[in-house]
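Recall that a protein's primary structure is simply its ordered list of amino acids. Everything else, from secondary elements to tertiary packing, is in principle encoded there. The following example makes that idea concrete.
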Amino acid sequence: MSAKKDENEKENSAASRILFENLYNVNPENVPWGYDTPDADIIPFIDKLDVPPKARVLDAGCGNGKNSVYLREKGFEVYGFDISARAIAFAHGKIPTGDFVVADARSLPYADEAFDVIVDVGLLHSIPPDAWASYKKEAFRILKSKGYYFLRAFHRPLNYPPDKPILYENTDQTGRSYFERDLNKEQFPIWGFNIPQIRDFFKEFKIRVERYSNLGGGDRLYVVMSKEGKRREGEPWYKRVL
């Protein structure tokens, strides 16, 4: 990485950290993803997961730890990271003995092939486009050779500009902005993805992508990827987890 690019990534990381901390500081109980129940999207995936009961699972962008609690109850050895120190404090509050760290998705403090499963519910779509490749490289560096990566992200229509956010979270917790004329420096952008884009971006991995409508508004993508090198005879790999 060039010195200039490295400097830019550090600046972008610092800016993201400040925005997320600001969001939590206004009212930590009222962040958009601050509820206590696990995200419903991970439940069918985890329930059918073909990994050992004591598998090492990473909750990527763990927030307040709600999904980590669910994953631990399922018997997994759970780890989590988030860019917000305040979020990590809340995660520790839910699981005092949990292995949670403050970290940026672009540079993760884990060893190669450390995890059987990575659960990403809303992290990728909150990372700026110039950092997507770094995050992907890190995620699949720390994923075991027969591991699974689960992703849930916002859907972006095919005719929507790929480099334009689909919405902005307001750090004053007044809701979301969908129009550029409403923007200010205290908002952070959320990007969306469509199926062809996701398939192309993760083309080196076996992948299954589905689009569904969310009752709360807006379509989502449900993605499962396998890092294993070979298929088992007679059965598509995703039949073992979906």
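Residues 3-240 form a domain with the Rossmann fold fold (CATH 3.40.50.150). Residues 108 and 138 are 7 Å apart (CA to CA).
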